[in-house]
What does this fold into?
Amino acid sequence: MTEETKNNDDIKRLELAHKIREFHHNSLWEEEKHFTWLVSIVLSAQIIVYTSNSLCNQDKLIFVLVGSLIGIFLCITAYRTLRKEGAFFHTALSKFVEEYNAIYVTSPLPKVPEKANKDISELIKLFFTGKVGVRDCFQLLFLFFMLIFVFISVYGFLTLGN
It folds into this structure.
């Protein structure tokens, strides 16, 4: 194998690693976007139903409780999906950095952090120190939405359940 062939193979591996990394990056964005829309729609529908004058309290309560269950399910699914896809992205990014650094030894990229995802307590702590990333913010957002759905179901039960 000649040096030129070896270099071409290295570049092809780098391009493939870049495409895989880009695929997972785009997947994360699409998942963040669509889950945020879905959760926002469910939450908006709950508020509309709760404030409506055309439904009796028992009907409102049913809609609010079912909406909360759907919202909680969506939030758990979104949170777990983002963490799973984040792990895939982390693996792809690590491979890209490895391939890049093998070719461009004089100007290497920084090493990728060891963990793909942060623990919930670490996410919360970093949020208040201003050191969270975009993916971290979306994970926190879905946890926060889940708490809102729990609150709405309890509040709805207390105010509409009489």
Q: What stands out?
A: The chain has one domain: 3-160.
